[in-house]
Amino acid sequence: MSDRSPAIENPWQHLRQLTPARIALGRAGTSLPTAAQLDFQLAHAQARDAVHLALDTDALAAQLEAQGHRCLHLHSAAPDRHTYLQRPDLGRRLSDESAERLGDHARQQQMGYDLAIVIADGLSALAVQRHALPLLQRITEQIEKDGWRLAPVCLVEQGRVALGDEVGEALRARMVVVLLGERPGLSSPDSLGLYFTYAPKRGRTDAERNCISNVRLEGLSYNLAAHRLVHLMREACRRQLSGVSLKDEADMPSLPGDAAKAGNFLLG
Questions:
Q1: How far is CA 53 from CA 32, 88, 157, 181, 184, in A?
Q2: What whole-number distance in Å separates Cα of residue 34 and Cα of residue 52?
Q3: CATH fold of 70-239
Q4: Residue 177: its H or E element
C-alpha cells in the first residue's frame, strides 16, 4: 500500500486564494477529490436552505424601530413559500389586505414621500436577515443632508422586485429602493440585492430599474453599496429617470492603506 494520495493537485491551486470560485480543484483519477465533492454538496445544501428559510419580520421590525424607523408589515399575493416559488407573478403584487393597509396609510398623509424603502425576503431571507439592517443604516446616514422625506420602511413577506413599484406608487413616493435576497449561488447563499426605481408605478420594466448586487461581507461592502445607491438616487432626481439611461458613474472611495496600491493582480 502506498501512502501517496490518489488526488492530483492542480498547478493553479494558489489562485484559489484570490476567488471563491470553484477553480483548480484537482482530481482523483477522472473524478473530483472527495474534499471538493463534499464541499460542493455542502454549498448546494446551504443554497437550498436559504431559499426555504422564512424571514423573521417581527425581529427585523423590532431592530428597525430601535434605530428610529417606522415599519409597515405587508404581504404579497403569494400566501405561502410553496406558492411563492411556483407563482412568481403573485410575488410581484401585494395581497388585497396589504394593498388596503398601504392605501389607508397613504390617505392619512397630506403629501407623498421622496423615498420609500422596501425590504423583502426574495429568494434568500438569510441575506435580508444578515445584511439589510447595517446596509440601511449606511444609506440613511448618507442621505440625511439631502432632507428627503422618508416613508415608513415596508417589510414584505414573499415579495419580488416588481412589488416595490406598487408600494412606491401607493405611497406617492418619488423613488423606491427594494432590498431583497438574491437567488443563492453555490458560493453566496446570503447575497443581498438593491433595486432602485425613479417615479415608481405598476408596469415598470427591469430596464427602468438600476440594480446593485452581491452586497455581503465577501462581496460588495455596505459602505460602497450605499455610496453607489445614493449617487444613483441623486442623479435620478437631477435627470428624472432611472434604469438603462442612468449609468453608475460614482467615484469609488479609495481603499485604505496598501490595499489602494495593490491594483489588479492580473495586471501586476
A1: 30, 17, 12, 11, 12
A2: 28
A3: Rossmann fold (3.40.50)
A4: strand 173-181
